[in-house]
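User: Here's a structure from my thesis project, written as structure tokens. My advisor, Dr. K., wants to see whether a designed sequence matches the one we expressed. Can you design one independently, without my sequence as a hint?
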């Protein structure tokens, strides 16, 4: 009997569930751009309450619970962007804001690694950002914390330090678009499904990280993430 696939399929990308032996299978990764006012200002914009916009990373860009991450090729300006991660546990389309949190399984903390030089060039040439955002190991993330255990946090300090020096220090309460609004708006563009992750945008303080440096991230008293560039 012939094999069903011409080669063995890749392993299913996943994230561990904190306090459990189970895993969350990752389907897609959506990312929100410019969702903190201070970060929008440092990037040369002023969105206030403009509609959110999205880009994507491949599911296998996930690096579960951090560790060593390879510095990517074709860049000399790799930037960190610390973000709250929302994990979808129930699918839907055109989800109303008031029911959006019913679709959220849980939360984590992640880093949106960005080839900033490549992104800037793409912006200038009016080309897509895909290779600036969606490269290998570009989405380190903590384990996921179920909402059934921690609730639906709408505030909480998040920090990122490089070799012990704090670079980002903010609070998720400062997001322009809140979690229910993000879930609702995105579900009007695509059908959300269980396994989808949403990286909700980064606060100000983004900057470069070099080979050999370690990023240490914290999320209130919930979790921490450590990533070393190699």
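Assistant: Designed independently from the structure alone:
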């Amino acid at each position: 009997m012939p094999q069903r696939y011409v080669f063995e399929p890749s392993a299913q990308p996943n994230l561990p569930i904190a306090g459990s032996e189970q895993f969350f299978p990752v389907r897609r990764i959506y990312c929100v751009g410019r969702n903190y006012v201070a970060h929008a200002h440092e990037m040369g914009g002023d969105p206030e309450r403009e509609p959110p916009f999205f880009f994507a990373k491949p599911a296998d860009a996930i690096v579960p619970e951090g560790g060593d991450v390879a510095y990517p090729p074709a860049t000399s300006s790799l930037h960190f962007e610390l973000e709250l991660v929302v994990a979808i546990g129930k699918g839907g389309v055109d989800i109303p804001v008031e029911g959006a949190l019913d679709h959220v399984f849980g939360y984590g903390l992640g880093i949106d690694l960005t080839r900033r030089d490549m992104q800037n060039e793409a912006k200038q040439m009016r080309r897509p950002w895909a290779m600036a955002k969606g490269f290998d190991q570009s989405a380190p993330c903590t384990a996921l914390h179920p909402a059934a255990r921690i609730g639906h946090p709408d505030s909480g300090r998040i920090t990122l330090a490089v070799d012990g020096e704090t670079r980002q220090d903010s609070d998720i309460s400062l997001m322009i678009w809140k979690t229910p609004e993000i879930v609702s708006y995105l579900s009007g563009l695509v059908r959300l499904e269980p396994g989808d992750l949403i990286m909700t945008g980064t606060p100000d303080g983004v900057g470069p990280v070099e080979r050999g440096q370690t990023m240490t991230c914290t999320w209130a008293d919930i979790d921490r993430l450590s990533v070393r560039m190699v």
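When you compare it with your expressed construct, this may help: The two ends are 44 Å apart (CA to CA).
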